[in-house]
Automatic annotation (TrEMBL), chains A, B, C, D, E, F:
This is 4-carboxymuconolactone decarboxylase. Residues 39-122 form the Carboxymuconolactone decarboxylase-like domain. One of its GO terms (molecular function) is peroxiredoxin activity. Pfam families: CMD (PF02627). Transmembrane segments: none annotated.
Amino acid sequence: MREEFNTELFAKGLKNRQEVLGAEHVQKSLDAADDFTADMQKLVTEWCWGELWGRPGLDRRTRSIINLSMLAALNRPHEIRLHVRGALNNGLTQDDIKEIFLQVAIYCGVPAALDGMKVAAEVIAEEKAKNAKAGAK
Amino acid sequence: MREEFNTELFAKGLKNRQEVLGAEHVQKSLDAADDFTADMQKLVTEWCWGELWGRPGLDRRTRSIINLSMLAALNRPHEIRLHVRGALNNGLTQDDIKEIFLQVAIYCGVPAALDGMKVAAEVIAEEKAKNAKAGAK
Amino acid sequence: MREEFNTELFAKGLKNRQEVLGAEHVQKSLDAADDFTADMQKLVTEWCWGELWGRPGLDRRTRSIINLSMLAALNRPHEIRLHVRGALNNGLTQDDIKEIFLQVAIYCGVPAALDGMKVAAEVIAEEKAKNAKAGAK
Amino acid sequence: MREEFNTELFAKGLKNRQEVLGAEHVQKSLDAADDFTADMQKLVTEWCWGELWGRPGLDRRTRSIINLSMLAALNRPHEIRLHVRGALNNGLTQDDIKEIFLQVAIYCGVPAALDGMKVAAEVIAEEKAKNAKAGAK
Amino acid sequence: MREEFNTELFAKGLKNRQEVLGAEHVQKSLDAADDFTADMQKLVTEWCWGELWGRPGLDRRTRSIINLSMLAALNRPHEIRLHVRGALNNGLTQDDIKEIFLQVAIYCGVPAALDGMKVAAEVIAEEKAKNAKAGAK
Amino acid sequence: MREEFNTELFAKGLKNRQEVLGAEHVQKSLDAADDFTADMQKLVTEWCWGELWGRPGLDRRTRSIINLSMLAALNRPHEIRLHVRGALNNGLTQDDIKEIFLQVAIYCGVPAALDGMKVAAEVIAEEKAKNAKAGAK
């Protein structure tokens, strides 16, 4: 791991980030870190995942709800993809996620809801396939 | 009340809207309804408050969390004002609301967080003053 | 068709949606409806296509103009694609659509206009190819 | 008038701008033009009002419909105020404007619609008061 | 000053924030910090002003240019007001700021440019009045 | 070249556009111009590249900084791609671009920064590969 990642806050953030988004995805981002992207990886891991997600004020399930709501409003499909997976890891059900996007439809408009739900449906299908495969073993 | 408001879904929505946003605010909106705004009041009360807020899938506290997150991202201070009050009515504490805006700072940017928090702080101060006055009686 | 789709408002919306967006596209969305997406399909078909597009206040051509304008501003390419096709079905010419995106350039900025026009150009080329093929038979 | 305003395109744009937004409002903007704002006034008058609004491809009524749709989506209340007045000047009725904002509610979300309609209602009330006063003379 | 503000990064950020936005404005924000807003003040001062503005990679003048560009695009008039003042403190001239907003007009659309320029013009007028008063002493 | 492109302002804009974005990309856009897209190409080349980029008030390096900042905030990946290449042509280093996106993270939120940086990293890798290939000859 790059030297500048060697801080206490980074370690704390890394653990939160891995637990929410999955170790594999996070490893891929860190492995890809080069002189152009490393400072961003550091900032995101320390501030977003160390500081914010490390705060005890709200549980992870609630933080996932907040994120999906904001990301749908912000029109950020890549992040919606990551955070639908995170939401499932944090205990949201398929029905919870459905309700969030119905509320998005009313407050952010139907296009935001349809776009977000399409991404969410893909992630949910992938997770089901993965679980089915794991169950078949 | 205007004739076109006389539907079952409107009545259901009206009850939800009053319980969340306060009867006084809702009455003001409905009293102001004229030929230009009545159809919008009907749509919002039926669709948003009857259909969506009437769904059992998420509790009101969670719906308030979703709304504050979306409204901060959408840059809608008038609606943030209404829904901070709604959030307090639905059981969110001052600390819960603070945490939401800290998460807004990271995902929507610092300006969205500072603008939203300013409005929220005003509502919280008003509610404290109102409660202090009520307590003094 | 799923049982919850069996309402009068859904039937009305379905007809409008099919006439504007094309029966094939709509059928695909409804066929894909599962426990995750069916409530959204219901909401969109009833409220957006039954209630709103069912209103006599504006003709369909005008509603298409409004939609393209909003969708370009909202940065929603998937929906622009659908509604450029809808606009052609509702009688807008290629020149009308061109003018809308020129106005988008001034009010929403050049990137919104270029992104939107690129999607529109693809749809227009597809429609021309389809018509040429149909004409050749 | 400032020397740099002395172009053919500016004169053409100025005429369009005055006819749509009202001579009084435009005069105020131009009178206020100083070394900081004059280049912007020139760009807007020439580009937006000379080039775009001078195009024959769409009538003014349609351009007003496009503008209100975009401005509601873009969350720009100052411009909504100007262009509701412009829309009335260009022949849109109160009912047309109402329909636009109902469509905004579905596609841009309820907060965009309520915020935009509030501004529109104020302009419509002002115009009615002005007309009543004029009629009383 | 509140105890949680007592970190090295906060001190570094506070210095940067005061030098850019003015000591008076910053003091007002910190004095107003209470249990609701203090964590946000800490996050903003440490993260935004300590971490980011403390980076040597770009000079302050350039960071002001970036901020005005983003804030105009983000539709955040309160922050534009603060950062036009900051831009003047960081050495941007009135003409530099004018050019930024002309570029905003083309890329973010005319409404973003007019709204932003209006706020900027007010700040510039205030600063001129302040300087004239100071010069008259 | 199409007849309507035959203006002095178009020629001036074309030169700027080619120098910033690369002659190959611009040629592709112009070659693709047809009755649907030609007026947009004309508007963009004349106003954006002739008028704005032709202004002496800011150097091209600064205009690239402004553009990347706005485009990240506006969520326009296609344009970010073009203008990262333009920024490199205008003398920004990889480190300058990195700093811009770190500032985007704070003010527009982490998703805007990660999305933008991903596109920028791809362009930077392509340019390095191209230069390596050119150097190997």
